[in-house]
Write a structure and sequence with these properties.
By secondary structure, this protein is of the alpha/beta class. It is built from 10 helices and 5 strands, in the order αβαβαααβαβαααβα. The radius of gyration is 17 Å and the shape is globular.
Length: 203
C-alpha cells in the first residue's frame, strides 16, 4: 500500500473488522526531552504486557521515507516533529498486532500528530487514549541533557511547550495523567502504574 493510501486503508480495515486496530489500553507517553520517556515506556511495557511503538523507532526504521517526504523548502525540521510520522504510524497500525493495547512513546509531538490521532479516533481505528505526561522543569531538563552535545535542545524545549502544553485541549475526552518525573525513575514508574491501575479499573 502506498503511503498516500494508508489512512483510507486503516479506516477500511477497522470497518471490516468492526473492531479498532488498537485495543485498550491505548497510552500516549509524552514529555520534554530528557524526561525519561523511553525508560518509563520500557518499564510499563514489561509490567503491563503491552507493546511499545516509539517515535525514535519509527524514525530509525523509516529514514528513506522521511527523507523522501521532506519539503526541500523547509530546512532543519526536527524528525520527531515531522508530519510524515503520521503516515508511518498508520503503516505500523495497519499491520496489526495490538490486540493487547499499545503505548506510544514520544508521539504525538505536535498538534498535527494529535489531529491525525483524533481522525483515527473518530473513524474507530483507535480507542480514546490515556495521556501520561511526564513533567520536568526546564532547568532540570538542561541539567539532565548537559554534555550530550545537543545544540538544538533549547529549540526542542520551546517546541515541546508550544505544541504539547495544550494536550488536554487536543483530547478533551481523554484521561490526562500528569506525573512529576523529576524523581527517581523507579518512583516515577510506581506513580504511573498506580495512576493507570486506578483508571483502567474504572473502564
Amino acid at each position: 500500500m502506498s503511503m498516500r493510501g494508508i489512512g483510507a486503508g486503516l479506516i477500511l480495515a477497522a470497518a471490516l473488522s468492526a473492531q479498532p486496530l488498537v485495543q485498550k489500553p491505548f497510552i500516549l507517553l509524552i514529555g520534554p526531552p530528557g524526561s525519561g520517556k523511553s525508560t518509563q515506556a520500557a518499564a510499563l511495557s514489561k509490567s503491563m504486557g503491552i507493546p511499545v511503538l516509539s517515535a525514535e523507532q519509527m524514525i530509525s526504521e523509516n529514514k528513506p521515507l522521511l527523507d523522501a517526504s521532506r519539503n526541500p523548502k523547509i530546512s532543519g525540521m526536527e524528525p520527531r516533529s515531522d508530519p510524515a510520522l503520521n503516515r508511518i504510524l498508520g503503516a505500523y497500525l495497519s499491520k496489526g498486532g495490538y490486540q493487547k493495547g499499545l503505548l506510544l512513546d514520544g508521539y504525538p509531538a505536535t498538534k498535527d500528530h494529535c489531529d491525525y490521532l483524533l481522525k483515527l479516533l473518530k473513524e474507530g481505528a483507535i480507542p480514546m487514549p490515556i495521556v501520561v505526561q511526564l513533567d520536568v522543569d526546564d532547568g532540570a531538563v538542561r541539567k539532565r541533557m548537559a554534555g550530550r552535545a545537543d545544540a538544538s535542545l533549547e529549540q526542542r524545549i520551546k517546541d515541546y511547550h508550544r505544541e504539547m502544553d495544550l494536550i488536554q485541549l487536543y483530547f478533551p475526552g481523554a484521561d490526562l495523567v500528569k506525573i512529576d518525573a523529576s524523581k527517581k525513575p523507579s518512583k516515577v514508574t510506581k506513580e504511573i502504574q498506580k495512576a493507570l491501575k486506578t483508571r483502567l479499573a474504572s473502564k
